[in-house]
């Protein structure tokens, strides 16, 4: 006998844009977001018995997303997610959990001759500010806030050495390399008991976002990184230090490799590679640089031209909690 072990449903990819007009100053603020709303509760029979009585149509959820954006502030997104989620619990007694996710796009104010323009904006990158809220009758409000899609690169101040060297290793140790990644940082808040408690503490959300962004960029730029692992751990530690209401921090960082040009030749000459590994237990990529062309030197200290790799890439993750 099969059992429905879990179920949730709702509307995804609801695109919303809200314009706030400050009457006094004539300044507009634009918030564009993508909202997802998935409900859980006593909805089994819609799956198992074709009984739609408990089903709040996903189309109605889409309407609710617009209406709540009109009736309430959408900033910070943690507040909007809490308000929207609580609405479903207050309105439908058989709904027990509302899972709300919000992805906020960047619309940065244009400055003209150094002066912020009142109603014109530009998209300065793919970075988004995200919120995942689980609003539950039994467990209160659980929120994960995050910053995603922030692409960064440093052209020095990154090392990687001392790692396992064996018959599978070709990567040379380095004391100076290009480091690039796309920041995906998430901070999980201690459980918030109610929407009122969330409202009472509203300032912490913007503060944490600003702090997480500054800490990430400052640590990335200023540290002489021994590895992605250690650098991301330091970022987590610093965020926990400045945000006492945050319970844990996670990072997921792809290592976007930039290799010296000559390293490709090994892949093109597998027989040669085998021979080298027999001769030399520690096989490293053979830097051929560009010297075959008029003696151009382009490795080590002379490296200027690199080949950005689209894949494969490293992917390094961690979660740091309070002890
Ligand atoms: O910072 C790094 N961590 C790794 O685990 C790793 N592995 C690798 O090939 N390069 C790197 N860089």
Uncertain residue ranges: 264-273, 278-283
Q: Major beta sheet, specifics?
A: 8 strands, antiparallel
Name the ligand types: uric acid
Instruction: State the helical fraction.
Output: 25-40%
Helix segment tally: 8
User: Mean pLDDT, as a whole number?
Assistant: 93
Question: Which outline best applies?
Answer: globular
Order of helices and strands: EEHHHEEEEEEHHHEEHHEE
> Looking at this structure, what is the CATH superfamily?
Urate Oxidase
The CATH topology: Urate Oxidase
Number of strand segments: 12
| Estimated radius of gyration | 25 Å
Q: Going across the major beta sheet, what is the strand order? A: 1-2-3-6-7-8-9-12
Structural class: alpha+beta
Cα(first) to Cα(last) distance is 44 Å
Q: How much of the residues is beta strand, in percent?
A: 25-35%
What's the CATH architecture?
Roll
